[in-house]
Amino acid sequence: MNESRIKVIAIESAADMDRAWAIRRRVFIEEQHVPEEIEMDADDSHAFHALAILDGVAIGCGRMLEHGASEVKIGRMAVLREFRKKGVGAQILRFLIDSARTRGSRKAILHAQLTAEGFYLREGFRAVGGVFDEAGIAHRLMERDL
Ligand SMILES: CC(C)(COP(=O)(O)OP(=O)(O)OC[C@H]1O[C@@H](n2cnc3c(N)ncnc32)[C@H](O)[C@@H]1OP(=O)(O)O)[C@@H](O)C(=O)NCCC(=O)NCCS
Q: Which architecture characterizes domain 3-106 according to CATH?
């Protein structure tokens, strides 16, 4: 798969938000067994959402929340299983980071699932502190200056 065929967009329509929710449902609720009431939280309504599209098909997503004055919190990063390890996640993350910089944010934080720590380390994040449980999955706080 050629990375240049993947387009990452900011979600601006209800239809695109539905496509992101469909990805999150498959990845978090069906694959990782996160309870639906935890996965679908109130933060979606005021978050900035990104969608990765390959040949018209939505294959990945992520979101970003304002977190303090000049900080953002990245979350809900998900790529459909069959499209992983091809750089799609990195493209979504870089899109969110570029958007945060454009908005004047100076720092990004996230709660990384331990299995995804290597992915975020490669993208310049560092681990902070110990491991904690969130939705039954082991996580660690990570951060990166922008
Ligand atoms: C975490 C997640 C979003 C990453 O998305 P992705 O598209 O697989 O990410 P990338 O392809 O950019 O990078 C992932 C890995 O593939 C490797 N990779 C990237 N391009 C590659 C290529 N062309 N060939 C082989 N490996 C490649 C990267 O080096 C990276 O290695 P790692 O496994 O050691 O971290 C995805 O795995 C996912 O949806 N996981 C389930 C949900 C989840 O855990 N979300 C994170 C919550 S914190």
A: 3-Layer(aba) Sandwich (3.40)
CB atoms within 10 A of CB 57: 10
pLDDT in tens, 28-70: 999 999 999 999 999 999 999 999 999 999 999 999 999 988 9
Q: Please choose, from the candidates 27, 83, 18, 93, the residue with its C-alpha nearest in 3D space to the C-alpha of residue 55.
A: 83
Domain borders along the chain are 3-106
Nearest atom of ligand 1 to the alpha carbon of 62: 3
User: Taking CB atoms and a 6 Å cutoff, what residues make up the pocket around ligand 1?
Assistant: 27, 77-79, 84-90, 112-113, 116, 118-119, 122
Is the pTM higher than 0.85? The answer reads: yes
Give the position, in ligand 1's atom list, of the atom nearest the Cα of 79: 39
